[in-house]
Q: What sequence folds into this?
């Protein structure tokens, strides 16, 4: 009953909010350029599914490539940093800076470096954004070996590599997946935002701007809906991966 | 010199070394890398090393001390970048403050009323994970229809609203977690003192939430900077670092080093905003004692 | 004169979650604590001794029965601040100094600043922490933290002290010293004390009356008046024949309690 309530309350609230939005738009005759009605957005989304879907695929693929690339870089970097302290110290201020500066600021330069006609720059930006949380959480995981486990392996007179394989790496896996969960949403947001800074004229953010420029606001909101759906897919995917990876961990 | 300050010096030197290393790597690739880049299966995996695509690090910094344009009376690029950075920093800071106020209010509402928490919190969490920044161009359209004294609000209002929009989510979630963080003994104690909801907030829940709040504020600051930069571009507000970045990049073929000026500006804005939060954290040190012991 | 605490027919059931059945934590409890009397509640885990204390403090409400503190219903007594309270964890606010922690109830109940200052100084002297007024809780040992918590509980000179295993987390040496101090403080202030513990010697050493409880559902098995003779030093008391005899008596009572031995109750 509690679980039903936990799901029901927000759902009821969401439906109510949408209904109020719909009613307000209809009752006050709000023009679409101010705010289109949710039902109209849904209808356009359905009608223009091929176009919206295409945008979703392009932005989603950029995000996915960025996520995979950034995760790979983050894991390799974290392992190197965990074993060579100098690398950790060399990278520390850079990683800290990356986590607070708008990474997307690099977008215009990357478009020049990789060519404005290719998606590569966007994927790199997304990868860079993904790298930060994956590197940070994985490194933390590699560092946080339970003292009792370390003592156990020492008592077994295990070699460093044996200890790494038996305890350190498995212990870091849940942390890695927490990093991926955080990064999954970040990859979509970054891939999307990079589109505002140039590059090929396809993808969801470009579609939103051009639809808005053509005063087709309902279509613009349909693209926003598409962006939200892509974000949700990544978020749920990341969450499921994390659940899968942490199901055996005792905390 | 104590051992601790020695490690500090070491960390500082190595950290600086890391930054220098990145610059050196850039310059090496820019000098010796292939001008057309390296392709793998038809995709460019390593960038073009041409002088237009990758100007040397020295020229990036050198360019800062030259005038923006060739015309007379043109200010130094550095001056222009600092000016634009201040504009963006100002708008981002405004958005940050508004976001904090709204986020705190929402957190208090959710703390006070269970139903509000169960109805709102899932949406707040979900909204952090979906790219709501996609709405930026549309929010601007919405704001532009508002009339204050017969006039449409200036564009920076829309930019600040988007910045605040991106920063209030982490604040509300972090503040709520912080407000609910006191241990049971503390809550019982204040109940035993027969004090009401508000004194409990002031004496217990709010001080206890400081460590949570600080990390939310850091995130919110980073978010509001990104929000401000992106919104400037998406909305088309001139004067800030975002627009400058875009327009300099478009003219980069003739003056490649110029495009890096606003990038340095954006990095500086991000670092300054994080620095402000760090200072705030240092000032609130006594509310973070539990962090060390817990 | 009305009793310090009067519990009549108190029952407390916690509703079950989902399909799980509800739990009866306390059943038909009768208890009377006289002004100035030191009463310990002892029993194995789950016997409801802490729940009973929470009912007296009005931190929870009974499902049935009534609780009076100095003749007032528990809720009214809480609002009137008729008692001071201390928990197993000292529960000090980490961002406040020792003095500021002791001052907290005085601030909340709007004592004039001058009186606050004087009272905090008195209390610091009472618990022997004059030199630690400006320290933060994380700079103190567990025993010192608990002394601060006791000082805080005494801040408004309550006629009744409620203590929920306040020494439960301390090591044995510190614990004995704290027991001695509490006994002295209770004697000096003349306050009645309701003291929850799972240590038999602690209960016997401190109390005028030990209330033995049994679990599932929580009931009072028996009440045992304690007489150790007054005036002798703490160590002499602990080694006296009367002390051993009464420790054994409480132990006997607890042995009749299901689940009390070998675990659940500290038979040291």
A:
């Amino acid at each position: 009953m509690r679980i039903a309530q936990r799901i029901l309350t927000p759902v009821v609230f969401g439906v109510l909010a949408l209904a109020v939005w719909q009613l307000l738009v209809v009752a006050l005759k709000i023009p679409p350029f101010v705010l289109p009605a949710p039902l109209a957005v849904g209808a356009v989304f359905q009608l223009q599914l091929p176009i919206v879907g295409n945008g979703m695929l392009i932005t989603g693929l950029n995000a996915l490539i960025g996520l995979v690339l950034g995760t790979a870089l983050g894991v390799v970097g974290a392992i190197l940093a965990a074993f060579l302290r100098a690398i950790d110290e060399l990278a520390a201020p850079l990683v800290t800076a990356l986590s607070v500066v708008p990474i997307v600021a690099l977008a215009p330069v990357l478009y020049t470096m990789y060519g404005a006609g290719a998606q590569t720059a966007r994927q790199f930006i997304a990868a860079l954004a993904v790298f930060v949380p994956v590197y940070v959480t994985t490194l933390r995981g590699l560092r946080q070996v339970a003292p009792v486990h370390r003592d156990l392996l020492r008592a077994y007179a295990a070699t460093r590599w044996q200890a790494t394989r038996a305890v350190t790496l498995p212990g870091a896996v849940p942390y890695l997946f927490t990093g991926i969960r955080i990064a999954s949403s970040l990859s979509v947001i970054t891939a999307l935002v990079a589109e505002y800074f140039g590059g090929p004229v396809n993808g969801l953010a470009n579609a939103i701007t051009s639809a808005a420029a053509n005063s087709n606001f309902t279509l613009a909101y349909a693209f926003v809906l598409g962006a939200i759906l892509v974000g949700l897919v990544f978020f749920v995917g990341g969450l499921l991966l994390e659940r899968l990876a942490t199901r055996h961990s005792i905390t | 010199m104590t051992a601790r300050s020695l490690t500090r010096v070491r960390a500082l030197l190595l950290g600086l070394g890391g930054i220098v290393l990145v610059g050196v790597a850039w310059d090496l690739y820019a000098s010796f890398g292939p001008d057309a880049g390296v392709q793998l299966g038809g995709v460019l995996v390593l960038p073009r090393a041409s002088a237009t695509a990758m100007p040397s690090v020295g020229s990036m910094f050198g360019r800062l001390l030259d005038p923006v344009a060739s015309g007379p009376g043109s200010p130094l690029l550095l001056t222009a970048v600092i000016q634009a950075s201040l504009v963006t920093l100002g708008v981002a800071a405004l958005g940050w403050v508004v976001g904090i106020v709204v986020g705190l209010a929402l957190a208090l509402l959710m703390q006070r009323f269970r139903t509000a928490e169960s109805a709102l919190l899932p949406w707040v969490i979900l909204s952090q994970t979906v790219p709501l920044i996609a709405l930026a161009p549309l929010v601007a359209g919405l704001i532009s229809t508002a009339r204050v004294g017969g006039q449409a609000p200036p564009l920076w209002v829309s930019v600040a609203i988007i910045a605040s929009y991106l920063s209030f989510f982490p604040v509300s979630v972090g503040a709520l977690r912080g407000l609910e963080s006191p241990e049971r003994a503390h809550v019982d104690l204040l109940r035993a003192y027969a004090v009401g909801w508000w004194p409990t907030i002031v004496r217990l829940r709010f001080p206890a939430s400081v460590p949570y709040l600080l990390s939310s504020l850091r995130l919110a600051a980073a978010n509001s900077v990104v929000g401000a930069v992106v919104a400037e571009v998406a909305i088309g507000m001139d004067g800030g670092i975002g627009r400058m970045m875009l327009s300099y990049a478009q003219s980069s073929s003739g003056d490649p080093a110029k495009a890096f000026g606003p990038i340095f500006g954006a990095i500086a804005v991000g670092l300054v905003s994080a620095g402000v939060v760090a200072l705030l954290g240092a000032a609130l040190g006594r509310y973070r004692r539990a962090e060390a012991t817990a | 004169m009305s009793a310090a605490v009067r519990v009549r027919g108190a029952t407390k059931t916690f509703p079950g979650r989902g399909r799980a059945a509800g739990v009866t934590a306390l059943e038909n409890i009768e208890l009377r604590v006289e002004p100035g009397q030191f009463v310990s509640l002892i029993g194995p885990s789950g016997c409801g001794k802490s729940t009973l204390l929470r009912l007296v403090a009005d931190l929870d409400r009974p499902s049935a029965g009534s609780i009076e503190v100095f003749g007032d219903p528990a809720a009214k007594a809480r609002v009137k601040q008729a008692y001071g309270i201390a928990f197993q964890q000292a529960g000090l606010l980490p961002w406040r100094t020792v003095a500021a922690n002791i001052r907290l109830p005085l601030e909340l109940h709007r004592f004039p600043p001058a009186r606050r200052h004087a009272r905090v100084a008195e209390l610091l002297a009472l618990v022997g922490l004059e030199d630690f007024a400006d320290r933060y809780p994380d700079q103190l040992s567990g025993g010192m933290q608990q002394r601060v918590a006791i000082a805080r509980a005494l801040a408004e000179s309550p006629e009744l002290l409620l203590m929920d295993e306040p020494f439960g987390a301390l090591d044995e040496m510190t614990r004995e010293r704290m027991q001695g101090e509490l006994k002295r403080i209770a004697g000096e202030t003349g306050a009645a004390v309701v003291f929850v513990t799972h240590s038999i010697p602690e209960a016997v050493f401190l109390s005028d009356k030990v209330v033995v409880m049994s679990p599932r559902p929580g009931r009072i098995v028996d009440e045992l008046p304690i007489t150790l003779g007054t005036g002798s030093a703490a160590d002499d008391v602990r080694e006296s024949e009367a002390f051993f005899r009464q420790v054994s008596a409480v132990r006997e009572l607890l042995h009749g309690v299901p689940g009390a031995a070998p675990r659940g109750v500290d038979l040291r």
Summary: The longest helix of chain B spans residues 77-112. The two ends of chain B are 30 Å apart (CA to CA).
